[in-house]
Amino acid sequence: MANFIISKIDLDENGVFFGSGGNDTIKPESQYTSTFYTIMGLKGNDWIEDGNQDGILFGMEGNDTIQGQEGDDLIYGNEGNDSLSRSPGADTIYGGQGDDKIYDDAAFVDRFNVLLGNLGNDTIGGLGFLYGGQGNDVIDGGDYGDELSGDRGQDVLGGNGGNDLFVLHPTANINEIPKGTENADLITDFINGEDQIALVGISYQDLNIYEITPREINDIFGDRAVDNNFYGVVKFLAIGYQGELLGVTGRDRSNFELREDDFITI
Predict the structure, then answer these.
(1) N or C terminus: which one in the chain shows less Cβ crowding within 10 Å?
(2) Taking the model in full, what pTM does it have?
């Protein structure tokens, strides 16, 4: 294991610092440096931090932990099960392969972040645009309006506070994905009049919305439904399209309905 406290003189001519190929700890000489860093962890399970300047941080291979500070950063986990997090800043965090945990500080409404899970079963939390990609992901927004998209896999989407947009993708027209429930998303906290559901390439008139029982939800989502057991919810609605289940949501009142103005088409 190697420990690196880097300064400007440690960078190559392109402003890049490369790890040793083992399990490295890489930090800037000063948290308040004005130097722009690109840090490449290479192989091994690395711990990487940057200062308060904008930076590009790559974990590469291994199960890496990357922590950004202030500034607008690009953080890329790549291979392995990575833990990627950031403090204030307008950031892009990309998990890559593996089951990653991606978090960004959700307390700063004036900062828009892009958090991308990509492959694997990822856990994503923060403020901004949150995208799961492939795999069965858990995605939680912040206290303000977020855009949440699970994409492929059976995802659990929670907007938390604010006016959130939940994106549902019909996938039955993609040859390698059969119709059914393989890509259904579970929306845990939809509120009429505050949140909306975005439909990709289809409209409200194309949907089949029907009531679904808790047992059916458990059959589809298994432990993922149990972990989000909707205390107090008395009515669940399924959102279907041409034989494919796109999503499920519920509320704490028996007259809960999904209306046309709850949806937009993108």
Answers:
(1) C
(2) 0.89
Residue whose tokens read 């904008």: 54
d(CA 253, CA 67): 42
* CA–CA separation, 110 and 121 (whole Å): 29
Nearest CA to 122 out of 88, 160, 84, 86 is that of 84
User: Do residues 139 and 163 lie in contact, with contact meaning Cβ atoms separated by under 8 Å?
Assistant: no
C-beta neighbour count of 229 within 10 angstroms? 12
List, for residues 189-234, the tens digit of each pLDDT value.
999 999 999 999 999 999 999 999 988 988 888 877 766 656 678 8
**What is d(CA 92, CA 186) in angstroms, rounded to the nearest whole number?**
25
pLDDT in tens, 34-55: 667 789 998 899 999 877 777 8
- CA-closest candidate to residue 40, choices 17, 11, 69: 17
Confidence category of residue 240, pLDDT binned at 50, 70, 90: very high
Rounded to an integer, what distance in angstroms lies between the CA atom of residue 206 and that of residue 180? 16
> From residue 58, how far is each of 13, 18, 106, 263 by CA, in Å?
18, 10, 22, 38
Task: Answer yes or no: are the C-beta atoms of 83 and 100 closer than 8 Å.
Answer: yes
Cα–Cα distance measured from residue 121 to residue 34, given in angstroms and rounded to the nearest whole number: 36
